[in-house]
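re: that complex we talked abt at group meeting.

here r the seqs, copy pasted straight from the sheet so there may be weird spacing, ignore it
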Amino acid sequence: MKKPLQLFLTFFKIGTFTLGGGYAMLSMVEKAVVDQKKWIPNDEFWDMIAVVQSLPGVFAVNTALYVGHRVAGTKGAFAAMLGAIIPSITIILLLATVFREYRDQPVVERIFKGIRPCVVALILAPSLRMIKSAKVTWKTAIIPIATVFLIWWCKISPAYIILAAIAGSLIYAVIINRKAKKTEAEP
Amino acid sequence: MIYLQLLWVFVKIGVLGFGGGYAMLSLIQHEVVEHYAWMTTTEFADMVAISQMTPGPISINLATYVGYTAGGFGGSLLASFALCLPSVIMVYFILKLFMSKKNNTLMNNTLKGLKPAIAGLIFAAGLSMMNLQNFPDFGRGQYNISVIICILAFVASYFFKANPILLIVLSGVVGFFAY
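got the structure back, here u go
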């Protein structure tokens, strides 16, 4: 079988069977790409994931594009990407037509009335966990608080917040890099 | 016109979507519910639940559904591909740049700095969904079932890392019997 087709099928399978987003997918990709097909050596794969994780966009798509490109060039990149997203698109399109038909049914409405507050909790919980893992101190707490205030209260687009945060963090990162270099040079 | 809007919105989300699916969710919520009003806040909440329960990336699932709601079948394909477009460009032009160790450290440090803002972003999306549409019994009647569901789900998710799909199913069952 040609490599682009194999890539398509591999990612199609992963896209069809992974619940719970990008990171759940990662171990399946590793198993298929590193262990079974031996397309990419283990250490290179994880180096690549470290880079892909810091990029914007859909993590699963970025991973598929990179693996595909690395294994079989442009054709491989597109084959892997399509494999990763076609199951999602198909399932949602099928569900969307059904859901819009039955949304107003009292039974469906009752079920979703219970689900909506749960969704709100499912969004709030990871954001707080993220604050914990980002090691936000009382001094830096101003950043998430200001963000919440600007978006929720002032209705400012999150896009501007992200742009401003990128600019700020980039300056901060450059300063850290310089400091690290200085301490390297001095002793 | 609707196609151009969908293209612009989802390319923007693809470029600025740092920090995973939930971070993108806050961008999508702002554009789709608040700015363009393609969806109501309840429809968005329903869709997040469905995206969470179906396989595949949450953001692709959401893009497909939003595109379908706003522009039919063509809209759904357009929105999903628009979301992927920046990634495609990145693989060719930017990835090589980041593969060098120096640039990668810089990028990782930048991302670390971004994290508190992204956390705030996601929290704001959750807050924006705390309204009477999603909590219809708030302040009416003696039992605020929606508030109880939200608090219990939050505790289960934050402290016990409960499986989100399980929580959604349980909340649906509670809703079925309680309303």
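couple things i noticed - Chain B has a mean pLDDT of 89. Chain B is about 80% helix and 0% strand.
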